[in-house]
Amino acid sequence: MTASVKIDIAEDTILVGIAAAPGIAISRSHLVNRDRMAVIERRISPAEVEPETAAFKAAVETSKCQLREVKEQADSKELSEHLYIIDTHLMILDDEMLIGETVSLIREDLINAEGALNRVLRKLRRVFDKISDEYLRERRSDIDSIGDRLLRNLLGETCESLTDVEEQVIVVAHDLSPADTVQMDRSKVVGFVTDVGGRTSHTAILARSLGIPAVVGLETITSLLPSGLPMIIDGSTGSVILKPSPETFRDYLLRKQHYDYLETELLKFRNLTAETKDGQSLALRSNIDFVSEIHTAKEQGAHGIGLFRTEFLFMSGEGPPSEEEQFDIYRSAVEQMAPFPVTIRTLDVGGDKFVPEFNLSDEVNPAMGLRAIRFSLKEVNLFRVQLRAILRASAFGPLRIMFPMISGVGEVRACKQFLERERQELLSEGIDCGEDVEIGIMIETPSAVLIADLLAKEVDFFSVGTNDLIQYCLAIDRGNEHVAYLYEPMHPAVLQALLRVCRAAENAGIAIGMCGEMAGEDMYSLVLIALGFRELSMNASNISRVKRIMRQVEIVEVKQILERLLSLPTAEEVVTELEREMRDRYPEVFTEAHI
Q1: Which of 203, 246, 515, 531 has the smallest set of CB atoms within 10 Å of its CB?
Q2: Residue 41 within any structural domain of the chain
């Protein structure tokens, strides 16, 4: 990577990436060298096996020491609620699939340490690339980050530390690790952009939590500009403006002032109730992956956990977590979140991806294959262990259990039978269980929408997973760049599906919520309230934003807007009409800059 301009950049050159963390940053670029290292695989002699193995193990220990230092620095900066991400990387450094297989390749295939590590990393990347769920697929960035750290330590290379930045800059890099993000001096690094990454990568999640505007997935930005180039990034829209003109600079300076003012205003709403001006209340909850995220959720005013993803418990170590390990984690979550409920979703991935000892064959279409509840009902021992742990934790506070990717009544009844069987088994062993564990399902398949009235008779609550529901309803793969533009949350078919589910829940008298990305989008959340949703679960950082808007609108008016939206034939017309209505009716909330 060089410091020379690769192309002639015109004034007001606009690039568009993925909006990873909201906010506007105006400064000069600071190019960070994160080039991938060239790895040469070579054969070694039997005499070199132990030295290569020792070198690899030393690199692992060095990497662990570096990450522990990052944890200490983060703790001293009062960033302790984000340390779970560094803990995840430390767990990866103990993972048998990464560490054990690398050592095995050195010894059995007689190849050098960096060559062996590179083979294992390629294998892991292929595994993650097959995952349909965007959030889980983005965990590949954690593998890349750890792999890069290990390779640099193996080869004795160092990389530039962002703690050395001396003036306000926008960091430009091919990629950044969560450790990089935690170490950023927020008074100096006012934003960052990267070639790769997605909105659900750990680096992006950290940026949102820390309030650092970020745009990722720009593909080639590191090859386009040098250090010191004036630029603007809008982390709310994904726009990057290179060499802004005086007019553009003034425009974005005003937008930044407006955004910063709104962010300050949001602090006033954290502890207020979530209700509209005409008294319609809503439960705003948080989505989490780790118990350590509950601290942030409570700080942001979450009234419970609407989605506790349990996939990460199955991604580290040499096998699935034991009943005791799961019980300790679930109990801790319940105790910390009380008196508000914790909703635990059972394992929502395919076994071949994260439980390798089951050795399932590759599937042509894993998004529609043996995954989620289908996998759990096949691998019943794994399912029973998780259910026992959840039931035991329910004795320590309000807990709800949620089954993913339900497509029919038969699956629900099978899940309930397993749950009741484990409850009776625990009681016979003298082990307490909660008496009022609510049972819910995720609505994320078209079949579940079509028979929502029948499913509602079987459970206590619905939670709509819009990420998959939209994908399946519109028959598009969000991960395919050729059709990703068709992913439209406001598509008329999606609105009709949501309306059908809400009516089924209302008629059956059960709770209806949402835990997909739509729930945290402040403009969409008003449509959801009008449709009949009474629980929304989202990233904790979005709770105050949604609450602020709710408290300034009237549900009667929003329902009038919904009637108009339901009559429109295209997603584009729905979005245009929604934006116009909100701007006209609530100009103090939905300004041009906000939208």
Answers
A1: 246
A2: no
